[in-house]
Amino acid sequence: MRNKIIGVVLLLLTVNVSVAGEHDEKLLKQVLSGKQRSAANRMRDIYRHPAETLKFFDIRPYMTVVEVWPGAGWYTEILAPYLKDEGVFYTAHFSPDSEVPYFKNSVRRFIEKNQKQPDIYGKMKRAVLEPPKYTEIAPPGSADRVLTFRNVHNWMKSGQAETVFKAMYAALRPGGLLGVVEHRAADKTPYDPKALSGYVHESTVIRLAEQAGFRLLDKSDINRNPKDSTQHPKGVWTLPPSLKLKDRNRNTYLAIGESDRMTLKFIKPYQK
Question: Which CATH number among 3.40.50.150, 3.40.50.970, 3.30.710.10, 3.40.50.300 corresponds to the domain 37-267?
């Protein structure tokens, strides 16, 4: 009798997990096709693979998630509506009072965009990441997931990469995951501590994460682009969407598409 009861309980748990998974997938599909996403952003799905990427990072709608340096909000358009009903969503952007004009203007535009759609962004929490002064991206140990997309090269350029990885580690609960997408430097290219081309060696990102206390859990080729040689006159910004050379060899760079990118998943280990 006891074995039968255990069997029924396991069956119910399996059914519940399956139903929850179907719900999460359906919700994400609705969000990806939602009107809150600009047409230009939706066109980039073929390069950025948001559904596959978020699935790889195991993002669920009930989680506490931090997006680090969201820029203009490409992923924010997806994460905010996905998490607004059941989860908690932080965006760790620049300071509105930043002394750096680019930072100040970037976060101002980001906030203005959010304020125009309170039904989508009204529950989103804003944090500030501008090291070394501002480094708390969420209450310590509160986040289930921390995500960052194409930002490691910026932190390397400013000499703040180690500080930011420590900040991301501090925000996560034990067992929480860090998801990183970054432009991937070819193995043959020399190491550049400033990552001025925008490309970073995969081994460098892994080293930075492990130094902060993370352990590499998995890696994926979701955002791999074998057409990208990574050797371009204006670095990664030669390719779309930036196309820094404008009409010069434009068709060539459009044919390559967006950059080759690593997709890495790290875990904050449980303390022994």
Answer: 3.40.50.150
Helix, strand, or coil (residue 25): helix
Which among 67, 193, 76 is positioned nearest to 137, based on CA atoms? 67
At 4, which amino acid appears? K
The model's pLDDT over 241-261, given as tens digits with 9 standing for 90+, comes to 999 999 999 999 999 999 999
Of 131, 125, 137, nearest in space to 83 by CA: 125
pLDDT digits (tens, 9 = 90+) for 61-105: 999 999 999 999 999 999 999 999 999 999 999 999 999 999 999
Element (H, E) at 177: strand 172-183
Contact 168, 146 (CB under 8 A): yes
Which residues, 6+ apart, have CB-to-CB distance to 197 below 8 Å?
Answer: 153, 185, 230, 232, 235, 236
Q: Please give the angle made by the CA atoms of 31, 241 and 80, to the nearest 5 degrees.
A: 25
Q: pTM of the predicted model, to two decimals?
A: 0.92
Q: What is the DSSP secondary structure assignment for residue 236, as one 8-state letter?
A: G
Torsion of CA 254, 260, 232, 245, to 10 degrees: 40
